[in-house]
């Protein structure tokens, strides 16, 4: 087959010579098949990070932090005891040992939460609990296990070094330290750290609201009447779950019938959200009206065909400043297209610094063949043995086989030009389900 390309005012004319002779088709610029990489770059270029909001400390868990958190004080704020024991002057007990203990006078009993007003004198000790401030005049703490107290005296069986068993002021963080930087995902340790810094409210990036629309005359909601020709709109739920998995909030727009007015009405409702995702109706069938409707609503299509399998048709553009993704209808295609384009876009909107799924090398456990031309995403079961990852196909790879996504831990990605991979060869796998990697037993070394 031969192609001539003539640029005429943004229109390309493709003349293809097939066995039946030349055929002329008219394509507009945006109708050209683009690579996954180009499509992703176009999407990300159009996405802006949302603003910030203030949330209470515990609600910040899992959110992206929107401010640099500095310490306004030393933590711990004062020297304190790391042990239950006796605070003393190391000079007094430097010759203490198991065989020859040294006797000191216990002048106070100091629990955590109280400060001693005494200044220790030679030959004295203060009984001290973990976390209590180090009394004046003492320079070390001997563990209670190395002592025996008798009334108001204590026998010390071990010497100490100056500073021993003392946690010094600022050893955790110092006043002025940058403790958590903007863009960090808040985990339990960050929540604890911010609590210790006295931060009860935190600025985090907003969570986008993502409108999810399913299109198709054949669709009913999950408990709707199926009759002899309807199917359940599973995409509504898989897509809303993918949105939730990103940490964003799905807005259920429901199902639009394959009519221009119905579609326009739903898309218009969606413009109140931060992003719109639809599924179905973007292909070349008679009832695939999504692209037309979006164009009529003023969307400039940035692309609508991506060189990938599953999932070639995929319309992307902006309406009223909102990104709109017209994902393909087939259940696997919509999920995989979401993974490649929508998920990174949502994560970017939310201020995430890392927006891509982990990519690993794995050994293919079977031969795979494909046609050259598109990037293939093959659903795979991923296992790990002795530190090596292995990938086996989940079986049937049809774009309607949703069960293949249920089984998949990752996607083997084969580049456009590849035509085959042999069992034992290295493949690249995008991990989908990092929270499926569990240990079978505690496995401590
Ligand atoms: P379309 O791109 O609209 O032609 O849809 C392609 C295929 O995906 C058809 O078999 C549809 O029935 C199916 N499909 C479309 N939307 C959904 C949905 N929301 N849930 C499940 N399957 C769907
Ligand atoms: Mg349809």
Describe this entry's structure for a reader.
The chain is α+β, with helices and mostly antiparallel strands and 445 residues long. The protein contains 7 helices and 31 strands. The strands form 9 sheets. A 6-stranded mixed beta sheet has the order 10-7-9-8-12-11, with no helix packed on it. The chain is elongated. Mean pLDDT is 92; it is low at 1-27. Adenosine monophosphate binds next to helix 3.
CATH architecture of the largest domain: 3-Layer(aba) Sandwich
- Report the strand count: 31
Q: Could you tell me the mean pLDDT?
A: 92
Give the ligands present.
adenosine monophosphate, magnesium ion
Strand order of the largest sheet: 10-7-9-8-12-11
Number of helices: 7
The major pleated sheet works out as: 6 strands, mixed
State the helicity in percent bands: 10-25%
User: Which spans have pLDDT < 50 for at least 5 consecutive residues?
Assistant: 1-27
Q: What proportion of the residues form beta strands (DSSP E)?
A: 25-35%
- How would the global form be characterised? elongated
- Give the name of the CATH superfamily of the largest domain: MoaB/Mog-like domain
CATH topology name of the largest domain: Molybdenum Cofactor Biosythetic Enzyme, Chain A
CATH class group of the largest domain = Alpha Beta
Whole-number total of structural domains: 5
